[in-house]
Amino acid sequence: MRLRLPEERPTEPPTGYKIAHAALSQDGSRAAFLGVSLGAVLPYGVLDDAHCAYGRRHRSPSRLCDCGFHCLHERAGAAALTCTAEHRGALLLEVAVLGRYIRFELGMRYARQRVRTATAGPCRCRRRATGLADAGWGRPGWRVVEPVCPGCAGPRVTVGFDEFARRGGDGLKVLAAPAADSVGPGRTFPELVAEAALLQARLDWFQSELARLGDQER
Ligand SMILES: [Zn+2]
Ligand SMILES: [Zn+2]
Asked: What domain of life is recorded for the organism (predicted)?
């Protein structure tokens, strides 16, 4: 009787997708990622090994435990996770799955990971983000940073995407997703609201002029 599942021997590391918060070490010299579920305690580096989240002395992943890195097979599935309020500031990661892994229908649980690209979503104001600024929370020794536009960054210390990638090392690339509410080429929701107010003001003026001319005609 066969007790083990067939082992896969891929020629290339499998690709997976997940979300994580970007974090900077307290002195700002190192960049890392903070997971959003089980791995939300300790940040992990661009290239890192999984450790048991419960502190058990076994190799991760283990069939007897749910620890290890986790990812989904589909990019859209991971992107959907950023819709929830607490994950709005999280980045979408494309990772290379290294070492031993356990494959599931929707994703994988595995031993070692390289983050290839991190894509920052729009700023909370829906404009395209240009950097990462202190999100106001973190872990001992680590500050979480979130995507911001120059207008919303304010006095907060902001690190550019290239600079975050450099501090992360190991070939990390950080990209920016386009603005969230683009309606037509390059038009954001606040821009359209401003234009609607302007049109309304012009229409009010036009109607008062018409009424004035109408009175003169009579
Ligand atoms: Zn474990
Ligand atoms: Zn903004």
From this structure: Bacteria
